[in-house]
Amino acid sequence: MLNDPALVLNRSWFPIGTTTVRDAVCMIYRAAARGLDPDEGTTHDFDSWASLSVPVEEPCIRTVRLRIKVPEIIILTDYDSLPRCRVSFSRRNIYKRDRNHCQYCGAKPPISDLTIDHVVPRSEGGRSTWENCVLACLPCNRRKANRTLRDSGVHLLRQPKEPHWTPFVTIPLAKRKASWEQFISERYWNVVLEE
Questions:
Q1: What is the pLDDT of residues 23-44, one digit of tens each?
Q2: This prediction's pTM
Q3: Which of these, 43, 102, 120, 184, could form a disulfide with 126 (CB 3.0-4.6 Å)?
Q4: CA 135 vs CA 67, 120, 138, 183: distances in Å
Q5: Domains of the chain as residue ranges with CATH
Q6: In the predicted model, is pLDDT for residue 193 greater than 50?
Q7: Where are the alpha helices (DSSP H) in 5-115?
Q8: Could you tell me the sign of the dihedral formed by the alpha carbons of 105, 110, 116, 121, in that order?
């Protein structure tokens, strides 16, 4: 249970990420955060959090003298900013960005028949960046080969660019808690990359 997720809100009550229950309790104890009781809508420092009654059927953190309620949501006391989320450059995210379509002919072959092509070939100084890598089906990749677009006669259907996440925080569906729904809309649960 100490490794379960807890939602982290900034001082303005905007979701910025998750942490473990263990770290959430530590932050409440150090006064870096306050625990939020989602049923009551009240915030608590460590002493008032530790004094909350915990029903017998509800999970709790046991100490020698206390049964401490498991914090599902914490609010940071001094952090007002929003993190800048960037999509990491990876093979998997290129496939997501291009939606498994060849960026030269628009075909959607099986994933095993797609490759990542450098628009400006590496031999010409092209780098592995969002703006220079696209998906290509095998026939288009063979046709383009190690040449520039002009030399190969192929054309991009869409200029490649770095995708942006729509929300500031993404949370896997498996970690979702009912108490978080008032702070995180449905669009955060099933995040897709923008075009």
A1: 999 999 999 999 999 888 899 9
A2: 0.57
A3: 120
A4: 54, 13, 10, 36
A5: 5-83+167-184 (no CATH), 91-152 (1.10.30.50)
A6: no
A7: 21-29, 46-50, 91-97
A8: negative
